[in-house]
Amino acid sequence: MNRFIATFFLILTISFPLISNCEIVDRVIAIVNDDIITLIELEKYVHVEKHGKYVSVNEYFRNIKLLERIDALVDNLLIKQQAKKLKIDVSDKEIDAIINNIKKQYLITEEELKEQLKKDNVNFKDFIEGLRTSTLRTRVLSQVISPEVLVTDNGLIEFYNKHIADYREELYKLKQIFISNNQSNPQNKATAAHNQLKEGKPFESIAKEFSDDPSGPDGGDIGFIKSEDLIPELKGAVRTLTPGAYTDVIRTPYGFLILKLIETKKGDTIAFEAVKDKIHERIIQEESGKRYKEYINKLRKSSYIEVKI
Question: What domains sit in the chain, N to C, each tagged with a CATH number?
Answer without folding.
Answer: 2-144+289-307 (1.10.4030.10), 164-269 (3.10.50.40)
